[in-house]
Specification:
With about 150 residues, the protein is mainly β. It has two domains: about 30 residues, no CATH class; about 110 residues, Beta Barrel (OB fold (Dihydrolipoamide Acetyltransferase, E2P)), CATH 2.40.50.100. About 10% of the residues lie in helices and about 35% in strands. The strands form three sheets. A five-stranded antiparallel β-sheet has the order 3-8-7-5-10, with no helix packed on it. Strands 4-11-9-6 form a four-stranded antiparallel β-sheet, with no helix packed on it. The longest helix has 14 residues. It is globular.
């Protein structure tokens, strides 16, 4: 049984490939060993299976905010966009409260949702501190790379 040699040369090679191709994540698996490199503000969290549907909870009334259409959401200065293709989860596990609601104050680096990609749960962190004025995705919604997720002002 051959094994992936986890050495500096392999990691540097993968990092070079990521830089040259613009990839934000790369993973190589061979037998029971794997190497995963990720960049772009997402924190990788391993999980065995996808969470079950989250039961929606009542949201507190939010302060009035300027209306943001989906067309200009991607260009909005406070937009947090998807760092990868996957499925959005608004809560850490089934039955748990959602990470954020409209009107919540968030800090830079705070987890705002999870994206499942290839059976791996990836935390998406807020890119700035501020108030959540719009959540543009729903729980278990498929996502595209660069898709606006949340507006934080």
């Amino acid at each position: 049984m051959s094994k992936i040699k986890l050495d500096e040369e392999l990691i540097r090679g993968l990092a070079t490939i990521m830089e040259e191709t613009g990839l934000t994540e790369v993973e190589i698996t061979h037998d029971e060993e794997s190497v995963r490199l990720s960049r772009g503000g997402a924190t990788v969290v391993a999980a065995a299976a996808a969470p079950a549907p989250v039961v929606p909870t009542a949201e507190a009334p939010a302060p009035a905010a300027p209306e943001v259409t989906s067309d200009d959401a991607a260009n909005h200065a406070g937009a947090v966009t998807s760092p990868m293709v996957g499925t959005a989860y608004l809560a850490p596990e089934p039955g748990a409260p959602v990470f954020i609601n409209v009107g919540d104050r968030v800090s830079e680096g705070q987890t705002i949702l999870i994206i499942e990609a290839m059976k791996t749960m990836n935390s998406v962190a807020s890119t700035r501190s501020g108030t959540v004025t719009k959540i543009l995705v729903e729980n278990q919604q498929p996502l595209e790379y660069g898709q606006p997720l949340v507006i934080i002002e």
